[in-house]
Amino acid sequence: MKYLDEFRDGDLAQGLAAHIRQAVEPNRRYALMEFCGGHTHAICRYGIEDLLPENIRLIHGPGCPVCVLPSGRLQAAIELVEREQVILCSYGDLLRVPGAHGDTLLKAKARGADIRMVYSISDALEIARAHPERPVVFFAIGFETTTPPTAVAIIQAQRAGLDNFSVYCNHVLTPPALRALLASGGEVDGFIGPAHVSTIIGSQPYEFVATDHQRPLVIAGFEPLDMLRAIAMLIRQINADEAVVENEYTRAVSAAGNRKAQGLMDEVFTVRPSFEWRGLGWLPHSALQIRPKFAGWDAERRFEMPPIQAADHKACACGEVLRGVKHPQDCTVFGTACTPDHPLGSCMVSAEGACAAYYHYGRFRQAAAL
Amino acid sequence: MIRRRNLFPRRLDIARDCVEMTHGGGGRAMAQLIEELFLTAFDNEWLRTQDDCAQFQVPAGRLVMATDSHVVSPLFFPGGDIGCLSVHGTLNDVAMAGARPLYLAASFILEEGFPLADLKRIADSMGQAARQAGVPIVTGDTKVVERGKGDGVFITTTGVGVVPNGVLISASRAQPGDAILISGSIGDHGMAVLAQREHLSFDAPIQSDTAALHELVAAMVAAVPDIHCLRDPTRGGLASALNEIAQQAGVGMRLQEAMIPVREPVRALGEFLGLDPLYIANEGKLLAICPAESADRLLAVMRAHPLGRAAAIIGQVVADDHHFVEMKTVFGGSRLVDWLSGEQLPRIC
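Structure tokens for the assembled complex are given below, as produced in the milestone run.
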């Protein structure tokens, strides 16, 4: 398939892998964090770690929107759909994520709640048009990648006078999460920077990683050759004691990003003073809320949605996994009490979750180690 | 027939009428629906007796029986519809024992208000699929549920067949060293249904691969009677079928990603939607596991049949206490191919 096979070429991969093996200093250890869950899945799906020397360790970051959504925000959606009889439109990933006491949207659906799985917010708009007599709420989550489409949908709903439609906004921002990770210490020598997020925000917002924290960051696409190339670029910087932001994903990412998308986001959203992240806690200026001029399409203003504090399962190590402190298989319930079929934490559910990636693609390694 | 016609002075208006509660009530309306719609579509000597059951002779061998319910949405999709799918699905389940399918039974749950024109289209498609396969639908049942209590039509089919003496095909026979073969490209059916449902169009639409595989199976069994295992990878796709076999036989599997045939539009849609073709349903493909020394012969026979032209050897069975299915990726690494978890695509068959 054109534009994909080129970035999955096994021969090119062997060449790059040989280059990386030559470049690493044998007595040095390299800890590299990929921020995005999309990268984590590419690592596991293509077996990228099999091609790397042992002294390169990949640490998985918090870049999975479903994973970082705190249980309380999910529980609020479950209670909204059951109390207000709304049609709740959600991406499939969210349906099996545990809220309070292991409840899920899927269980609420089985109890009779009208929850529809959609592929995009435009499907939710269609449902709102088709059911003018019913309130329709879209459960919006995601980093900067999925935020512009939400902005467009809200603008379209306003223009069309689609008053039965609203958005439960859980959009979060990448740079504040990176800032929090760096502030918490840790042993990361360099970062593989986000792919799709960077197409929107550009490479400029990551400069603080290099200037304030002296860590290299290389923005990489989600294809496996992109990742190997980014790893080679990071190794070069680390060996040379450099710390700059580089862009491997030049076919999609510019320094300034997509200004039109940024304009749409700015028109519809404003930054929340603080927002809770699973694993990272309350982070200042780390999430978006809908501006007052679009209050009619903000589910949190239209409906009573009191904040809910819901504790994660006490055995679940999602928090440590999201901070990169633990590997998924370090969690005591990984693959035993917590599986994709019976998840205790969000990282085992989401298509971008690190635990799900390890379980789906890499469990044999864990078994071999037992 | 002339005597019956007099029972129904006004024929069904198939173009305009809908299913009504009376069509499942056991009275004259039901008899008319059966005669004018189902009997016309399936016509054979057993149905013409209008008994509540069918009686037939069976040849020597072991009797095989399988049943399958069909709830696909949408009912009509590129390459097929719920009618032919319900025939192929059960024929294939019978054939996976190495059996020759002989007879089918069909049971319908119809929703009040369902257009008779659509029902006729579905019944005609079933009749045609059954005739093409040479396996008559010899008995059936019809029930009607109130509007809103069904989704147009649900069809359950049951099939019986006979396995010749000397043939023993079962998942539990897969053993280390065996070769794993697939009869063609994977993911076509699930992606065709999904593309139709989501209104995703391509220059050449993805066609469902729905097909009856028993003739392909007959050719394979004739050439290699010692096939260890056959399975049609329907819901859950190739990945789930291999995991089931690995679990049943207590073995592991090692696959070569580069050898697994996937058509370009299926790959493209999978990339677009984030769906892995390994987990997408097939309705006209089979997995075969046979001794390594027979693999080339089996592959040649499969490729000589129209339904196996793109057949390939995709891996081998290994000893593995964990019963893992692993795959060497095109990229040069390896990964686990796990069971499907949750429900990737609902209502596909």
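Chain A touches chain B at residues 1, 4, 8, 10, 13-14, 17, 44-51, 96, 119, 224, 339-341, 351, 359-364, 367 (CB under 8 Å). Chain A has 15 helices and 13 strands. Further analysis is deferred to the final report.
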